[in-house]
Amino acid sequence: MGSEQKEHENAPEARFPVVAASALSAAQKPVHDHIAQVSEFVFGAEPPFEWTDKEGGLIGPYPVLLYTPSTGTGFFDHAIKLGTDTRLPIRVKEFAILAVGGHFDAAYENYAHTRLAKLIGLRDDQVADALAGREAQDSAPGEVAAFRLALAMVGGKGPVGESVWKGVRESFSREQSAALVFLISSYAYVAMALNAAGAPAPASVMPE
């Protein structure tokens, strides 16, 4: 757990460098263009977090997808579909995502979803608690249930305990519960990919 896991902090170059638009291969270009178009549609022309660099190159989890163009579009579309699914309240989703990002200490995921969480009304202390693995004060029962499920899924071994699942069952329908399970799983996937890539939050981000 020492130097190998901290190696990315002093790495001389990115493990999966940002690919400039002018350097995209024939296989990468349609993936890049699709991610850029969908991201702009979902997050708007002035998104609450940076997903490109100043030259328009994709950052965060996106560069990794460009190095596997045959599967990159598929996973991106899967993640976007889960993130924009309306079956779950947005606050429920953000509490679950913050729990996942906090558990993995995934810098870019935590940067982006801290901003999204505050945009939808979570307080600074609620975001800080969720990232630290603590149940946030004044959370609704469904938000607590989602948060507990996320921590159980990413931090435990074997089946999720019945006490945790009881909270899920009391707060959500089976359809909503399934959507929540896949949302948590998807963001764990993203967090692990970000950490393997050593992907930081944007350099322009300053402490708030």
UniProtKB/TrEMBL annotation:
<protein>
    <recommendedName>
        <fullName>Carboxymuconolactone decarboxylase-like domain-containing protein</fullName>
    </recommendedName>
</protein>
<feature type="transmembrane region" description="Helical">
    <location>
        <begin position="178"/>
        <end position="198"/>
    </location>
</feature>
<keyword id="KW-0812">Transmembrane</keyword>
<dbReference type="InterPro" id="IPR029032">
    <property type="entry name" value="AhpD-like"/>
</dbReference>
<keyword id="KW-1133">Transmembrane helix</keyword>
<keyword id="KW-0472">Membrane</keyword>
